[in-house]
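Researcher: For the record, we're logging two predictions in this thread. I'll number them. Prediction 1 follows.
Model: Prediction 1, sequence and structure:
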Amino acid sequence: MTAAAVARAQTPQVPPPTRDQAAVTLAAEALTALTGGQPIRDVRIAAGGEWLRNGQTHSGLVALEASGPWSSRLVLGGGVWREAYSLNADGQPQGAWSGQDGTAHSQARHNSFVPAAWFFPALSPLGALADPHASWQFMGRGVWGGAAVDHIRYWRVAAAGSPPALNRLLKIGAAGLPAVS
């Protein structure tokens, strides 16, 4: 065997994503209902607010910003505190935060499994219908808050070459999405 063949044999095989057509159709319908069929690439939501940090209550401008489904920022106090979430070039989640001194600090990977634009469903995960690593599954019908819903499940399969443990964590972090029928 050549060295290249040995390397390929040792690389963990990532299972392909599953795409249940019923779930994809429901997600596409929900996205159209949210956006009126218009593409949305960026969003910024800002308002005055309060937050707790290090046991103290703070107040000021709170801004939630997203650029597509894979990148977002939370800015508190006009930039005093920032958090950013994104996918790196390998499609794996990453996050960082910075305080008043502006120094960026990496977050543990498991703290970055939340969809980047969690605060704006049209960008995440519904905005990820074209993601080749996304899996969608129809879970059935039910009732949520007195309303009839179709329940779909979404998760991402890690990019090829990712550690098997990362794939397990991504599956554990799958998001269940209720879609009102």
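Researcher: Logged. Prediction 2.
Model: Prediction 2, sequence and structure:
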Amino acid sequence: MKNENVEKKQKDKTKKPFYKRWWFWLIVAVVAGTMIGAFSEAEEGEPSQSNTTEASTAAQTQTDAAEKYEKVNLTKLFVELNENALRTKNNYQDKYVEFQAQIYEIDDDGNYIIVRGLAINDYNEAFCRIDKEHLDFIMQQDKYNVITVRGKISNIGDELGYKITVDVDYVGERIIEQN
């Protein structure tokens, strides 16, 4: 019995050093592989910061479109505004929305467009401020074309009639949803 205890103590004292253990070399291999991968990417000429930023911005824009904007029906929004302007302002002021609309007026200076809902006899008009980046698209449009508008409702209320002002982030072709 005493002999067994002595053998155990000797075994404990003769343990392999950590650098001879399998787990140590696994860690070294992982760290080395990570470092080699990082250095090789830098040497291969990664895309410039601006190209990477542009690509990620474009991808983020598509993602934002799905997540950031609440789809609304412009005609129904004006009905809500007519029924209770205070509640509608509370619900939609500074909200990002997406809607389909019919072009009613195009500003000759390219600062805004006025759109109407798609319902028959919908004479309510939303004032949409546009940026210079939207001019090429808008210049190809005509009155009564149906477009998609995404933007932030910057003003909603009843100033000499019911009014909605949208600061446009995107204006483009009508998006037809498929079920």
